[in-house]
Write the structure tokens for this entry.
Amino acid sequence: MTYLEITLQIQGKNRAAAAEVYSKYKLPFLNTIDGAKSKELLVREEDVQVLHGFDSVDNAKRYLNSPLFTRDVVGALKPLLDAAPDVRIYQVA
């Protein structure tokens, strides 16, 4: 299992809109992205994280270059972000 973690700096007033973006693209992610296994929204006081589960590191990296991510998700989130996202990929040992 591989996890793609994207940490987003989003002000409280914009978090509902960010949650709508998450909800809108969750099923397309799970249904169309190769190797996609799960997608979870984690909300903390200091930030918002989206945790994506994949079957491989390669499929996680491919998703970051997919039109669903680069055009749709990033395009919808960009006006809500206070800073560039922190993107990390983890592989389960």
User: Anything to note?
Assistant: Strands lie at 2-8, 36-43, 48-54, 86-91. The chain has one domain: 2-91.
